[in-house]
Amino acid sequence: MEAISKGANHAEYCSGYSEDVDIIREREYPFLKGTTYLDHAGTTLYAKSLIDSFAQDLTSNLFGNPHSRSSSSQLSTQRVDDVRLRALRFFNADPEEFDLVFVANATAAIKLVAEAFRDATPQGFWYGYYVDAHTSLVGARELAAKGHKCFGTGDEVEQWISGLSGDQVQHPRLFAYPAQSNMNGRRCPTQWCQRIREESSGSGRAYTLLDAASYVSTAPLDLSDASTAPDFTALSFYKTFGFPDLGALIVRKGAADILAKRKFFGGGTVDMVLTEVSWHAKKATVHDQLEDGTPPFHNIIALDSALSTHERLFGSMSNISSHTRFLAKRLHKRLAAMRHFNGEKVCHFYMPSESNYDDPATQGPIIAFNIRNSSGGWAGKSEVERLANVKKIHIRSGSHCNPGGTATRLGWSAAELRRNYSAGLRCGDDHDVMNGRPTGILRASIGPISNLQDVDAFASFVDEFYVEKARKTFPLPPPVTLVSQQPSFYVESLSVYPIKSCGAFKVPDGQRWEIKREGLAWDREWCLIHQGTGAALSQKKYPRMTLIRPVIDLDRGVLRVSCGSDSKELEISLRREVTNVVTTSLCQSAKSSNVCGDRVVVQAYSSPAVSSFFSNFLGVPCTLARFPPQLSTRYSDPGRFSRAKQKRPMPGSFPDDPFPTPEQTPILLSNESPILVVSHSSVNRLNEQIKYSPRPSHSPPAKAVEADVFRANIIVAEDLHQLANAERPYSEDNWKSFSVGPEQLDFDVLGSCQRCQMVCVNPYTGARREEPFSTLAKTRKINGKIVFGRHASISRTELLHDSNPTKIWTVMVGDAVTPTHDAE
Ligand SMILES: *Cc1c(COP(=O)(O)O)cnc(C)c1O
């Protein structure tokens, strides 16, 4: 298989490129160093010299608004005209036969066509589209007054075409389909356009709209024969060149009349407009009539650089086509060959059976698949994507804006999908598997500068994390004999995270700390919110948050915050003050896995001193916000809530509260549970595994991770004086409950803590690493979830039997911890 070590000796691999793809990459794509980018169907990437030459162009010329008469304006107009012609030629489109309308993106091109059709006749139009369509094509159906139809198979389309000549209707029809599915790379028959034109005529004429946005990224779109070409072709240039963000609608002039019936006009599209009476004269050319307002002329000028650079580096789209085909074939072959120890396939693909990576007429260089374990269970797409992310691999997961394609391939009916929606499924969320079936698809897409190493890195990634080489032995057997010996743990450290996602405040030794039903006092009392979106910031996106270190100073009644090595400190009163606080509604980002979609009212600090303190450090416009007082948690029963409020808080915290309880039932945002417990011996075991796990020779030696990366509230350790050398890593996996301290305060264990890549942020530097997530994924997957540590809360019985409203529960470093175990 390694016969092709470097591409140079294979006919398809970067043949026709100016240089070896690795050399081009090194010089032109410096940002790709150490990265495996396999999301070219999302966008391909721009070359450095494209940007340099564009910058040179802009800084050496004076470009005015193209709609004026000055020489600077005329220069812009000329360049726009030249680039328009050049872009047409790139697609072999004869300017006599075609015009090219610059638009924002492919979606805008589609919308322009759909709106023109809506306006063209009083009765409206009929719309047909192919099931593999991008949402941008699907949406056009909402404008079709004469109805619409989604064609589920190619045969259905063929049948409809055959019936066109006999089916004379009085309204225009529009048939739209993708040249290539962005979801699985499947290519549709090109001859549909010609056949549809031949079979229909007159007032019931059927027009064709080709969505070429995905196709043009790796294949030559050839419009040299106007008689077989689509009437309208929509595309986005960033898909081909990475830059500029610009789209085009290519119009076959023979079909342009219907677009001229579009009602809206604005900016440059008219020659004269009267306002006294309703009269206007449209400009003559197709593009003049359709380009509303000032065209994006800087972007159009950038397209000139893009075309030159692209040609210089890659020669032609055909070269890219064979290069990407070669790599896709290789990746598909490797993934398809993977087997678990029991012979079961690892990857399940979503390309139709007739697709063939050798045949550019049916298949583009996109691989759509999901991963199964040895017993047939599906790996969650979000987990795969997260793990890939940790490995600096960029792929895409989800439904890829291709609702018909994904639903068909995954076998979901409309009714089932609506049920999933009611059950909470949303685009881009973490509901990966519902009713035992995947809701989304993984997509690896190849581009012009993908290389052998990308493909091999991705295949190795799947092999490393998802191919079960041997039957798994269940990793958690706490010997029953040991359990009966009453293993004894103690509280090694207590951490409070006053500001969600920021650094820890360690409770000083010797100080008893109040613990409430919601968790340790002051834990997740505050958060940082984005001033634009209102969403709570997370360390996942802003790893520097870990360097924001809060201190609870009970003596002075303040929260003291410092950032990194800055000497500046911010002090916030622990009292709830009415001044300088505004109430705002916190929008949990839809992607947040824990409290998805919930809205919570928080009190944001409006003082510029507060917001600039955090904004300057993180480089994002944000401010501090405080959760409302004494929120009930999802685990609490409402009856207890009011009594809990009457309790005297711990010395130094403040009973009187100026804020009314908000109307919505809020929830505490301390992630998934009031308290997170981690055992030090488990961290030690994990570190042994990190150190000794085999790794590729080129990677640096693995370093142990700090227990703090797990952001536990309570770290427990075995009392080794009592049981010599008796570390029992992961015995907490079987804890049912535990009691702490001299008063034996009881806690219920609620479940295991599912982990994400946030554990990879080094708590002392804010740098992202690969560990411990990488090793956790291999050693700590239980029921398909990567888990470490246990969620807990003060036990129900403790809460129910506590009749003394003045009682305060406390814990302290050094307290004994006595677990009880689940019966095996
Ligand atoms: C990317 C893509 C689109 C949408 O392109 P925009 O630039 O977002 O408008 C539409 N269809 C297909 C097939 C695509 O790949």
From TrEMBL:
Q: Which Gene3D superfamilies match?
A: Type I PLP-dependent aspartate aminotransferase-like (Major domain)
What is this enzyme's EC? 2.8.1.9
Recorded catalytic activity of this chain's protein: Mo-molybdopterin + L-cysteine + AH2 = thio-Mo-molybdopterin + L-alanine + A + H2O
InterPro entries under this entry? Aminotrans_V_dom, MoCF_Sase_C, MoCo_sulfurase, MOCOS_middle, PyrdxlP-dep_Trfase, PyrdxlP-dep_Trfase_major
Alphabetically sorted, this entry's keywords are: Molybdenum cofactor biosynthesis, Pyridoxal phosphate, Transferase
> What are the catalytic residues?
401
As one GO molecular function, the record gives:
molybdenum ion binding
What Pfam families would the database entry show? Aminotran_5, MOSC, MOSC_N
Q: What does this protein do?
A: Sulfurates the molybdenum cofactor. Sulfation of molybdenum is essential for xanthine dehydrogenase (XDH) and aldehyde oxidase (ADO) enzymes in which molybdenum cofactor is liganded by 1 oxygen and 1 sulfur atom in active form.
Provide the gene name from the record.
Answer: hxB
Its protein name is Molybdenum cofactor sulfurase
Where does the MOSC domain lie? 648-820
Which species does the entry assign this protein to? Aspergillus avenaceus
Q: Which GO terms describe its biological process?
A: Mo-molybdopterin cofactor biosynthetic process
Q: Which residues form the signal peptide?
A: none
- PANTHER family in the cross-refs: MOLYBDENUM COFACTOR SULFURASE, MOLYBDOPTERIN COFACTOR SULFURASE MOSC
